[in-house]
Amino acid sequence: MNKIIFSFFVAIISLGNLWAQVTVDGKTCEGVWKTIDDETGKAKSHVKVWQDKGVYYGKIVQLLNRPANDLDPNCDVCPGDKKGKKVNGMTIIWGMKKESSRYAQGKILDPKSGKTYDCTMWLEDKNTLKVRGWLAMFYRTQTWSRIE
After folding, report:
1. Alpha helices per DSSP H over the chain
2. 121: pLDDT confidence band, cut at 50, 70 and 90?
3. How many CA atoms lie within 13 A of 109 on its CB side?
4. pLDDT digits (tens, 9 = 90+) for 48-93
5. How many C-beta atoms surround the C-beta of residue 28 within 10 A?
6. 95 partner at 20 to 30 Å CA-CA among 6, 14, 50, 57?
7. CATH placement of domain 2-146
């Protein structure tokens, strides 16, 4: 009987550790994030990340630092059904799943280039999200700051 209780206790602790690795102070990747361009260091947009049935998505809810004549651009270089659509409101992250220490198996679209990359995200702290897009062995990592 003691072995069963001990095994149950270890399983509960293990599940708690799994949860803690993708959360920080009870926070997950869900929320609104300010994206920072890793090339220029300037704020680019606000992206809302949400979860639906265990899959995480992200969409642009506000563009930042845009020229006055280009405040609401279309994505003319985007592939498929995103081609010609407004960047503001566009889903740019899809298919992300919670893994032991990160969110992975998803895709991220760069509306500037129209390229889609494999994506991994992880919380560095409760207000800092690291977002990495990669293709083969080439990757870029951005640091996003929590707004909400």
Report:
1. 2-21
2. very high
3. 22
4. 999 999 999 999 999 999 888 888 999 999 999 999 999 999 999 9
5. 17
6. 14
7. 2.40.128.520
Q: How many CA atoms lie within 13 A of 80 on its CB side?
A: 7
Contact in structure between 122 and 96 (CB atoms under 8 Å): no
- The three-state secondary structure class of 76 is coil
Alpha carbon distance 107, 92 (integer Å): 8
Cα angle 31, 125, 66 (rounded to 5 degrees) comes to 50
Domain boundaries of the chain, sorted by first residue: 2-146
Query: Considering the entire predicted model, what is its pTM?
Result: 0.82
Residue with tokens 């602790």: 13
Q: What is the residue whose two structure tokens read 């506000």?
A: 62
